[in-house]
Amino acid sequence: MDFASSLINWYESNKRDLPWRHTQDPYKIWLSEIILQQTRVQQGLPYYEKFVANFPTVKDFAEADIDKILHLWQGLGYYSRGRNMHVAANQVMDEWNGKFPDNYKDLLTLKGVGNYTAAAIASFAFREKVATVDGNVYRVLSRVFDIDEDIASGKGQKVFTEVANQLISEDKPDIFNQALMEFGAMHCTPKKPNCETCPFVQSCESRLHQNIDQRPVKLKKTKVTNQYIKYFLIEQNGKYLMKKRQEGDIWAGLFDFPQVISSEKDQKLSNGIIIENTGLDLNTNDIFFSSEPIKHLLSHRRLFIEFFHVKLQALLETQSEQHHYSWMDIDEIQSVGKPIILENYLRKNIY
């Protein structure tokens, strides 16, 4: 079996028409690859188009205000991607004279660019013979060749990378990488793979051994913890008190409201708890509305969020300067980046 030829033939007949497949511009390929990390193509496509429209070149991206980038990123999650991209774009401008590095090794020097992304840019933009290995590739290779190495282990990742690099097409490394990922996304799917019309139906070792549903092997499970967040929408003269999340935070650079965070489901609110968490001497008697808890899932956390609306009866005293609070009107709030759970709530109840 000529794996590469069979795979490329399948791809030429079945590939999706996606805008980043019509360019060899490393900037646009980089943009698409970062956006599609942890994001489905259908969800990522409008973001890609929006970013290309707002920042046509890496120079435009580097010169952009990070607040605008995070505002446009709103809803994609994993906001560190947007922050890292801004750093990487400035690296390209400052360290590479405005041109993306043209090889896998040098691409790895860019902030937020790991092995997979560097391989994708190097092969798609510069046709370097280096394999891209993502979740789709793990699945396809583990099934076709019945590889039982744990994909969460360093050894397993090394094995799959070596196999992919042995299989990659000599003269079409870019098409091979696109094809392998597309095949995993569209045909050899996690559940109910389309085995009957698979080009590897006669040679797929996992099908022969009847263990397709056991490939790929991933032994390490992600531990998900519960977190209970109480947000305070504090209103005074048509403005709301907000704060910008600081470095070291998963939502760094985004704006949100004062909050009380707990691992306990039924933590009771008191002035002392509010002051301790927010630095604000907030009178709970001012609360005039609270929402039903809203569930929001992150990769490692399960959030249960309540919103408490507060109309101040007296001037609010701030006990701490560490929270970076500011009063913002509705137009200002709409213009800054926020966690998507806040944006959805504001659209429904405030805007």
UniProtKB/TrEMBL annotation:
The keyword DNA damage applies. It catalyses: Hydrolyzes free adenine bases from 7,8-dihydro-8-oxoguanine:adenine mismatched double-stranded DNA, leaving an apurinic site. The keyword Iron-sulfur applies. Its EC number is 3.2.2.31. GO terms for molecular function: 4 iron, 4 sulfur cluster binding; 8-oxo-7,8-dihydroguanine DNA N-glycosylase activity; adenine/guanine mispair binding; metal ion binding; oxidized purine DNA binding; purine-specific mismatch base pair DNA N-glycosylase activity. It comes from the Bacteria. Keywords: 4Fe-4S, DNA damage, DNA repair, Glycosidase, Hydrolase, Iron, Iron-sulfur, Metal-binding. GO terms for biological process: base-excision repair; mismatch repair. Residues 35-186 form the HhH-GPD domain. Its cofactor is [4Fe-4S] cluster. Binds 1 [4Fe-4S] cluster. Belongs to the Nth/MutY family. Adenine glycosylase active on G-A mispairs. MutY also corrects error-prone DNA synthesis past GO lesions which are due to the oxidatively damaged form of guanine: 7,8-dihydro-8-oxoguanine (8-oxo-dGTP). PANTHER family: ADENINE DNA GLYCOSYLASE. This is Adenine DNA glycosylase. It comes from Flammeovirga yaeyamensis. The lineage of its organism: Bacteria, Pseudomonadati, Bacteroidota, Cytophagia, Cytophagales. The gene is mutY.
